[in-house]
Design brief:
The chain is α/β, with parallel strands linked by helices. The protein has 2 domains: 178 residues, Rossmann fold, CATH 3.40.50.720; 185 residues, Dihydrodipicolinate Reductase, domain 2 (2-Layer Sandwich). The chain has 14 helices and 15 strands. The strands form 2 sheets. A 9-stranded mixed β-sheet has the order 14-13-12-11-7-10-9-8-15. A 6-stranded parallel β-sheet has the order 3-2-1-4-5-6, with helices on both faces. α5 links the parallel β4 and β5. The longest helix has 24 residues. The radius of gyration is 21 Å and the shape is globular.
């Protein structure tokens, strides 16, 4: 897992190979002509890809629509969620707007064990869109059930979860199951073309980078008298580290993923700072509202990372990569290279939220078994190690993070009392 290399040329070759493989996969899969489903046992003898959705909130519902837009063969046939009202709202929206989403009562599953009931129902592919805490367990169960997987980012909230995802990803590879993650920039044409140019040396050797997800507040649901601690936290999962990983993991993982992609490696260590400057009320759970980290990559490449959720401040969601011969600037729908090899993306940019499903489905149809589990696990781990540093005030190495015994699981999965963990205090919270 260590990405350290002593030879700069080796790093550049690896980056070129990595970018080339990513571009070929996304481009080729999107262009693949539909092949007989008999090539894949999971969909043999059928013109239908039976999809189950685990996690029926807004992102899950959106992902189901994206999958149906990606291929007419996709039929959403089963739903699972811990909350009945989430499931019913999703079911109503899907059935009202899509002929391929008629879901019978006996294919609707509610509760903490709903995911397993859905997997046992005979679906070919699953969309995993619950709060991130549950991703490692659900991914492992989906692979065990022999399902192809689309899983939203991030894929874990602690090192234990990352190790589970990597192990399940290896098992998926052995079973020839396709796995695509919700790091949609990996499937966005402007990013793919920019990375292809970077891989060919358009900005020279990457020497530094900057990435940002600075924005205002997000949604929040007022606690109702009938809600238990567990229900309140689940319905406001963004604000609890055990559920979301904090916004550096849940949201900023996109930008960190771009940096890992371009550099061709995960970082080797990091040092960060952060805290709760504005969102200090207990209704805001126990996450920070800002983080800043400096990541060190192999060959003395440093990336400054910044994320913030505070209203009334300047916003910025982007990446900048500095090279020996230029720089690359990117954000959703935008890619620019400045320097001797000046370039700007001007083409039509297909919806990356749909494209990631097109690539997954093309891999299923063509038997090209595409697996993003390890890369998204490493990008998620990059965010987690940054949070470990901001929470503790300590420098964190990749090896420390990967071998950490930190586990954020609750005592049990049941509706009842669940005290909120104390807010981390740098210099006092221990590095586990």
């Amino acid at each position: 897992m260590s990405g350290k290399r002593n030879d700069r040329d080796k790093r550049n070759v690896t980056r070129r190979e990595f970018v080339k493989a990513s571009a070929i996969t996304a481009g080729a899969l999107a262009a693949t002509s539909p092949l007989t489903f008999a090539q894949n046992a999971g969909v043999a003898g059928s013109d239908m890809i039976k999809v189950g959705l685990i996690g029926c909130g807004g992102r899950g519902t959106g992902a189901a629509f994206n999958a149906m837009e990606a291929s007419e063969r996709v039929h959403v046939v089963a739903l699972a969620d811990v909350f009945q009202d989430h499931l019913e709202k999703c079911r109503s929206n899907l059935q009202e707007h899509a002929e391929r989403a008629t879901i019978s009562d006996d294919r609707c599953y509610v509760g903490f064990d709903a995911f397993q009931k859905l997997l046992d129902s005979g679906v070919d592919m699953v969309i995993l869109a619950t709060p991130p805490h549950f991703r490692p367990l659900h991914f492992a169960a989906a692979v065990d059930a022999g399902c192809h997987v689309f899983m939203e980012k991030p894929v874990a909230v602690d090192p234990q979860g990352i190790r589970m995802v990597i192990e399940s990803g290896s098992m998926a590879e052995q079973k020839q199951l396709s796995v695509v993650a919700g790091t949609q920039r990996r499937h966005e044409l402007c990013y793919l073309e920019m990375m292809d140019r970077i891989g060919k040396g358009a900005i020279g050797n990457i020497v530094a980078g900057y990435c940002y997800w600075n924005m205002g507040f997000l949604w929040q649901k007022e606690r109702q008298p009938s809600w238990s601690d567990m229900e309140w936290q689940l319905r406001n999962w963004l604000y609890f580290t055990w559920l979301s990983g904090d916004h550096i993991v849940e949201q900023h993982v996109h930008n960190l993923d771009v940096c890992n992609w371009a550099i061709g490696s995960h970082p080797i260590k990091c040092m960060g700072m952060g805290g709760r400057e504005v969102r200090t009320d207990p209704v805001n759970g126990n996450i920070f509202d800002h983080h800043t980290i400096v990541y060190e990559y192999p060959d003395n490449v440093f990336v400054t990372s910044m994320c913030r959720q505070i209203a009334g401040c300047a916003n910025n969601v982007s990446e900048m990569l500095l090279g020996s011969e230029g720089r690359a600037l990117s954000s959703s729908g935008r890619a620019v290279i400045e320097g001797e090899n000046k370039w700007r993306f001007h083409e039509k940019n297909p919806n990356p939220y749909v494209q990631e499903h097109r690539d997954l489905i093309a891999s299923i149809e063509g038997g090209r078994y595409y697996n993003e589990a390890r890369q998204v696990a490493e990008s998620t781990m990059t965010a987690i190690m940054g949070r470990m540093s901001t929470y503790t005030g300590q420098e964190v190495t990749w090896e420390q993070a990967m071998n950490s015994e930190l586990v954020l699981d609750p005592p049990s999965y049941s509706f009842g009392e669940l005290p909120v963990r104390a807010v981390a205090v740098p210099g006092q919270t221990p590095l586990i």
